Structures are given as structure tokens and as C-alpha cells.
Amino acid sequence: MTSIPLVAVVGNPNAGKSALFNMLTGARQKVGNYPGVTVERKSGRMALADGRPIELVDLPGAYSLDASSPDEAVTRDVVLGRQEGERLPDALLIVLDATNLDNHLRFALQVIGLGFPTVVALNMVDLARRDGLTIDKARLAAELGAPVIETVAVRKRGMEEVKAALGEAVLSERKAARPEEEFTGVQRRARAIASAATVGQTFTRRSTLAIDKVVLHPVGGLVFFFALMFLMFQAVFAWSEAPMGWIEAGQEWLGQAASAAIPEGFLRDVVVQGIIAGVGAVIVFLPQILILFLFILLLEATGYMVRAAFLMDKLMAKAGLSGHAFIPLLSSFACAIPGIMATRTIEDPKQRLTTILIAPLMTCAARLPVYGVIIGAVIPATTVGLGIGLQGLVMFGLYVLGIVGALLAGFLLRKTVTRGASQSFIMEMPKYQAPHLRPILIGLWQRGWAFLKRAGGIILAVTIALWLLSSYPVAPEGQKQTEYSIAGRIASGIEVVVRPIGFNHEIALALLPSMAAREVAVTSLQTVYAIDAEDEETAASEVSNQIAGRWSLATALAFLIWFVFAPQCLSTIAVARRETNGWKWPLFMLGYLFALAYVAAGATYWIATAAGL
Amino acid sequence: MAMRVSLDKLPFHRPATVTGIDWESLGESDAKRLRNLGFDEGVGIEALHSGLFGRDPLAIRIGRMQVAIRRAQAKTIMVEAAGA
Fold first, then answer.
1. Rounded Cα distance, A610 and A196, in Å
2. Residues of B at the A interface (Cβ-Cβ below 8 Å)?
3. Are residues A501 and A562 in contact, defined by beta-carbon separation less than 8 angstroms?
């Protein structure tokens, strides 16, 4: 069978490559991984006007074929036909930023030299025009020896022309590759072509310069940055209140409906108290997680993220890192896994390793349910003035603690196990762009769906397993079920270790399953309280009410601090193993984080107890 | 009179041209990164912003691109600005 023609989309970072890819393929995308490396492979299909299908693959952005990161190496290897798990493309779609031709043409020239049938998308022509740049399309096409099509990917302009040109390109034969040219030569040729094809030259990108005047101001920029971070975390709470109420109401309705439908007994208990109440206790945090991701996606899409890295560079330098480490660390606020994968852009191996080791200290979204439940249970919902809620403030404090802990850990690691030369910080600062709804929505959808799949998969499985392990063997009269059962006995073993830091038997029981995913701590506590409950009503009541009634403030605070530091999720350990090629560093990470968690939670408990809390 | 200085000493908002880069002292990976961002002799350059602490790092314009770079690396780049 003849396979569908493959077109690889290539271009510099910030050329609008992914936007173009999204517009051409629509929602029909497949996200996978290249074998052996953790580089994402995004592919999708599009249909030509005559109905022929074409497969598009969105290769990572690259500055040149002279790769300096694993992502760029994948792009190079695909176009050279050396990438495992990818066939040689039949044609290439090169995406150029019309406002930055001198730089983007270099990579384009290198790639065109390979001889593939090529179509060039001259993207962001609207921005170029606004900047006073006019590009002579015909001249450019003649110099490059490939059709040039003006596009504005985010506005869907030029898509039909691109499709038509690709339809022709995939039918053409590949030419012989030109001999490889010396880098500086290509560079200068690119500049010469850019200046010949560009009519009307201004250096200013007025809007970007104007915004930078404010957000990169030495003092004002930092004030803006911290205000933005604070707004982000307040929004996570303030905006999520209503949708969380709806989810809780839906969950309650579902529980009642299930109670009515299933006869009383073990099955009803599992379904109503275990699955609906347990998984529901996690799903209720979906709005908060989506709001957090919304902010991160917006920061990335607008171009502010690199400015934040710029502002934070000096601070990161104090911890032996650089602004490069900021972006993976900020992503780790959503989840350490994409955060650790994002460290691939850090070239220095020691700095990258340090960033991987401290990434789990950033408060990931999975901690939100844990923090949310405990804070909701023990911290009063009062305001401290200016409309700032105390609960939000405590949450902010936990985030800050994670950051400070990470920077201190980074500092110490760089002095000891990951010692190395001081770092450089060299990074493109892309122009600002108004964010577009569609890619943001696609990003939110992918992340929200991943969270729900976790809730539906791992969390559901662990919850059911825990329910079974906590229900059998059945305790004789006078003994507590959660102590007599298998899970209870395991927990009693753990309790010996964690008793000194103020943890009770229920917490000990929740710690082990929460290694699968942190959120499971909440469902586990829900399970424990439901099984031990004297009556149906208590069993179905919210876990935070149970905690409010049973835990001392000192224990609750120690539990929160534990979760700031503890390396609680196995997926993070697994990705650290993959990214560091071995078990040495993930085990080191596990050890140092557990030690840190134990000491910090213990100190919190002892101090809080001494203070009479 | 033309002014010849290293990039870290170039006054802000004074358009200049790169006259030479000490690739040797940059080290391989930084040199590659700068080349990939278009650093080369004859390219237009301008210092735009700096961070608060130690006025580091710098935000500069190179060609039509904006790039962040630390002072330590900026020292290796010689530039020439037209007389003011």
C-alpha cells in the first residue's frame, strides 16, 4: 500500500510554526513521543482541495541544523532521514517570521539545501506591514528557489494557498542535496537575501518596545512581575469558587442517585463513598487547575514568559542557575513532568540536572487538592483586608515556601553534588503577541483532559484498591476497621516513623497511595473516614469537615509542609530517570526530598505544638 | 567621532555595529548559541534594557531580534557606534 505523503513543518522558534500546523490540521492531531528521547511528536492530517490526504508533522523549532538541544537534534535528524520512528518527509513546509527574515532565512537556506520539494510560508505578514516592512515575495521566491506564500496563521490567512502548493510539492521529485555550506557563509547569504527582499526597513517593533519599557524596567518590571504572580494565585481561588460549587452539587446529586439505585451493602459503599466521593474530591479541583494552566499558557503565548526569565535571571544566578531554569520551574507549578522535560532547553548538563532535582519543589497542580482540602478545613475563611483572603494567603505562603526551598536546595546542590562553572544566559526574547483563543483552548483541553484521565485512571484504581485493602479482613467488634485491615496494618508500620512529626494513623495510611499521585491523599483520607464512619451521613460528608473535627492545627500544618517538600509522585521519579539516563539521580532526589520533608514537617509540628496550636 | 567599546559598555539606545566577537573565550556552546541568534560582524546592535541587580542581564537588539545576554558574555562582543 502506498503511504500518505508526509510533510514536515520546520522553522525557527517563534516563527508561528505551531499556529500554522494547528490551522492546517485542525483538531485532528496525534501527540506522541520519538523513541528514546522525550521529544514530543505532533502530527496531524489535512485534506487537499481535491480530497488527497497529507500527513503533517510539526518538528521542534530550530535555529540551525547545527543542533544545540535534543529538540533541535530531532528536527535535524528527521530532515536528514536519521530519526528513528519517523520516515523521511516527502516535502517540507518552512515557516518564516516575516518580521525577522535575516535570522530565519539562515535555517531556511540550510534546509532548502537538502533538496526536498519545499514550500515557504512567509508568516506574520500583517505584523511586518504594521512595522513598516514590505517584503518582495517574488524576489524571495527566486532567491530561495521555492514558492513563497504569505500567511497569517493565527487569522487563517493563506491556508488554502499553502495547501495547494503542498499538493504540488508532494508530487515533485527530490533534488540532489547541495554540499554543506560553511555557517558564517550561510548566515551572510541569509542577511543579504533578507535585505534585498525587504523594502522599507525600520528596526522598531513599536508595540514590543513600548511594553518592554514598562515590564523590563529595573524596578517597575519586578513590581509588575510579582503583582502578576500574586494575581495569578488569587485568581486560582477567587475564580474557581462558583464552578467548584457546581461540581460539588453534581457530585452530591450523583451520590444520591447511586444510593437510590444500588441496594445497601458493600457495592453501594464503594460506589458512593469510594468512587463518587473519592474521585469527586479530586475532580472538584479541575477549575483551579485550569485557571493555573490558563495563566501559564497566556504567559507563554504572549511572550511575557521570557521577560519573566530575564527578570529572574539574577535571582536564579544566586542559586547557581540562570533565567533558562525559570521557565521549566514555572511550568512545574502546573506539573513537574512537563517542567522536567522543559529542562532540555538548558544546555549546561550540571545546571540542567540541578533544575531537574529542584523542579518537584515547585507546587504542582496535584498539590492543590491536598492544600485546598486541608486549608479549607483548618484555616478560617476570613479576609485580612484589601479583599485578600486568609486562605489564599496561606496558599500563597506554601507556594513561596516551595520556591525558597527550591532556590536554597539549588544553591546547596551547586556547591556540592552539581558543582560547575558559572553560567551564561543567552535567549531570544520574542515579540509580544496578542494571545489567540484557539491554541489556548486546545492547550487547556489537553491538560484538563490529562488531569481527568488521571482522576479516572490512577486515582480511581488506587481508591478502589485502598477501599478493598481497608475493608478486609473485617474487624471484630470493638476494633477499628481502618486499623485491623491490611491497609491499616501497613499504615501502623508507617505510623511508627511519622508519629514524631505529628502524623496520625489516617495520614500514615494516606501517604503510601499518594505516591501514585499526590491528589490521592485526599481520596485516601475520604476513604478512611468513610469506612470508619458510624453512619451513612458521616460517611458521605466532606473530607474537610472530618479533618476539621479530628486534626489538631499543628498536625494539619505539618501535613501541609510535608506536601511542600515530599517527592510524592512516581511519575515524576520516572521522568527524572528517563531524563537523567539512570537511577542515580532520581534516587538521590527521592532521598533528599524525603529527608527535607520529614525535617520541615517535624519542625513545623514541634514549633506549632510549643506555640499551643 | 566613532565609539568603539565592548557591548556591556555600550550606552542604551545607541545603535551600533558589531565589529568583532571573541569566539574563543566564549566557549563552544555559548558561541554556537550566539551564532544561531545571528551574532556576526557587521550586524546592527543596540542595548535596550538591563536587570536591576548589578544591571545584569542585558536585553539587546541584534539585527531584528531581541536577545537576553549576561554582561559576562557581552564583554566578548566589540561594537562600534557612530559619533554622537
1. 76
2. 15, 29-30, 32-38, 40, 43-44, 46, 48-57, 59, 61, 63-70, 72-73
3. yes
B44 by DSSP, 3-state: which? strand
Q: The dihedral of CA A274, A283, A372, A365: what is its sign?
A: positive
**A71 closest CA partner among A271, A326, A341:** A341
Three-state secondary structure call for residue A428: strand
**CA A442 to CA A19: how far, in whole Å?**
11
Report the residue from A208, A347, A425 with minimal CB separation from B57: A425
A565 and A600 in contact (C-beta within 8 Å)? Answer: yes
DSSP annotation string for A462-490: HHHHHHHHHH-SPPPTTS-HHHHSHHHHH
User: Rounded distance, CA A500 to CA A481, Å?
Assistant: 24
Dist CA A338 CA A348 (whole Å):
19
| Segment holding A101, helix H or strand E | helix A101-112
* Residue positions counted in chain B: 84
Q: Does A187 sit within 8 Å of B40, measured CB to CB?
A: yes
Residues of A in contact with B15 (CB under 8 A): 203
The complex's ipTM? 0.94
User: How many CB atoms neighbour CB A238 within 10 A?
Assistant: 14
Residues of chain A whose beta carbon is less than 8 angstroms from a beta carbon of chain B are 63-64, 66, 68, 99-103, 106, 183-184, 187-188, 191, 203, 208-209, 212, 216-219, 221-222, 306, 309-311, 313-315, 322-323, 347-348, 422, 424-431
pLDDT for position A139 = 93
pLDDT at position A365 is 78
Query: For helices A17-25 and A437-454, what crossing angle results, to 10°?
Result: 80
Calpha distance A223→A39 (Å, rounded): 36
Write down the pLDDT at residue A36.
61
- The predicted pLDDT at position A1 comes to 41
> Are the C-beta atoms of residues A96 and A121 closer than 8 Å to each other?
yes
**Of A314, A312, A348, nearest in space to A329 by CA:** A312
- Contacts of residue A162, Cβ cutoff 8 Å, sequence gap at least 6: A20, A24, A93, A119, A121, A149, A151
Cell output for A217: 524596567
- Per-position pLDDT tens, chain B of length 84: 689 999 999 999 999 999 999 999 988 888 988 999 999 999 999 999 998 888 889 999 998 889 999 999 999 999 999 865
Pairing of strands A148-150, A118-123: parallel
Q: What is the pLDDT of residue A160?
A: 93
The pLDDT of residue A27? 65
Element (H, E) at A352: helix A349-358
Respond yes or no on whether the N-terminal peptide bond of residue A473 is cis (omega within 30° of 0). yes
Residue A565's Cβ-side half-sphere holds a number of Cα atoms within 13 Å equal to 24
Cell output for A593: 526530598
Q: By the 8 A CB rule, do A528 and A509 touch?
A: yes
Q: Closest by alpha carbon to A481, among A506, A512, A460?
A: A506
Question: What's the average pLDDT block by block, 10 residues per block, for chain A (613 residues)?
Answer: 84 89 81 67 88 92 86 91 90 93 92 94 90 88 94 90 93 86 89 86 70 90 90 81 89 90 82 78 79 87 90 89 88 80 81 93 86 88 79 87 93 89 84 84 82 74 80 78 84 89 90 81 83 66 79 92 86 84 92 94 94 78
Contact between B14 and B84 under an 8 Å Cβ cutoff? The reply is yes
Distance CA A324, CA A349 (A): 12
Half-sphere exposure at residue A429, Cβ-oriented, CA atoms within 13 angstroms: 30
- H/E run at residue B18: strand B16-21
Q: DSSP letters along A204-272, please?
A: --HHHHHHHHHHTSTTHHHHHHHHHHHHHHHHHHHTTHHHHHHHHHHHHHHHHHHHHHS-TTHHHIIII
